[in-house]
Design goal:
Strand content: 15-25%
Strand order of the largest sheet: 2-1-3-4-5
Structural class: alpha/beta
CATH class of the largest domain: Alpha Beta
CATH architecture of the largest domain: 3-Layer(aba) Sandwich
Oligomer: single chain
Order of helices and strands: EHEHEHEHEHEEEEHHHEEE
Distance between the termini: 41 Å
Helix content: 25-40%
Radius of gyration: 19 Å
CATH superfamily of the largest domain: Response regulator
Shape: elongated
Length: 243
């Protein structure tokens, strides 16, 4: 699936950039490398967008997190972030800024390649609805999720709940797959992608934040997002098309 696909590697360490570029080229990708955001911006402004960007977090000048955020706001290509940071809060921050995967240094190139291919598969399948003939608006209890506008309202006043992009994506997974146990791996794949750490608890943090915001908005749905021990989470309520 790598034929004709272009990957941009943004990494200020020349040795890592060269070795990773050579490895990916050997796997059939076309690779362009830069040592920072300035080179990446020039490339994006003068040619077609790459299929994926491998972006280091710690860069001179504008850091990778800032680059990731503005590219995602502009509807840029998928991003796999490389970083030496390995705390849960850093992972959550990277994912909330729009990264599709988060891979910690030092990394195994084969693991990174698997992540890249997974992101590309998901990007190629983007736009397919989670359920057949998915309606534009869904209702669960007192909550209405507008799938087209990416808004969530609650209660008789239809007050909008201010969710982050990551929180909305997580809620979207639940309302389009109600009354099913969803594993942490599935939720990570369907939202921002799995990290290289099999014991990653990012999804637990995101579910906790989503519940807190639903509770603060007075929505009863927060209590319907249930933890299933050793299995994952479930939205224990029926979902219907909203008028």
């Amino acid at each position: 699936m790598s034929d004709g696909q272009t990957i941009v590697v943004v990494e200020d360490d020349g040795d890592i950039r060269s070795q990773l570029s050579a490895y990916l080229e050997n796997e059939g990708f076309r690779v362009v490398g830069f040592d920072g955001g300035a080179g990446l911006d020039r490339h994006l402004s003068t040619g077609p967008a790459p299929d994926l960007i491998v972006l280091d977090w710690m860069l001179p000048g504008e850091d990778g997190l800032s680059i990731c955020r503005r590219l995602r706001e502009a509807g840029g290509p998928p991003i796999v972030m490389l970083t030496a940071k390995d705390e849960d809060i850093d992972r959550v921050l990277g994912l909330e800024m729009g990264a599709d995967y988060y891979v910690s240094k030092p990394f195994n190139p084969r693991v990174l390649l698997a992540r890249i291919r997974a992101v590309l598969r998901r990007a190629n399948a983007a736009g397919a609805p989670a359920v057949e003939a998915e309606p534009d608006r869904l209702s669960v209890a007192d909550l209405v999720v507008d799938l087209a506008a990416r808004t969530v309202t609650a209660g008789d006043t239809a007050a909008e709940i201010p969710l982050t992009s990551a929180e909305y994506d997580l809620l979207h997974c639940f309302v389009t797959r109600p009354q099913r146990v969803l594993s942490r791996d599935q939720l990570l794949d369907w939202t921002r992608g799995r990290t290289a750490d099999a014991f990653d608890r990012t999804i637990d943090v995101q579910v906790s934040r989503l519940r807190h915001k639903l509770d603060a908005a007075g929505s009863e749905v927060f209590a319907m997002l249930k933890t299933v021990r050793n299995a994952g989470y479930i939205l224990a309520a029926p979902v219907r098309p909203a008028p």
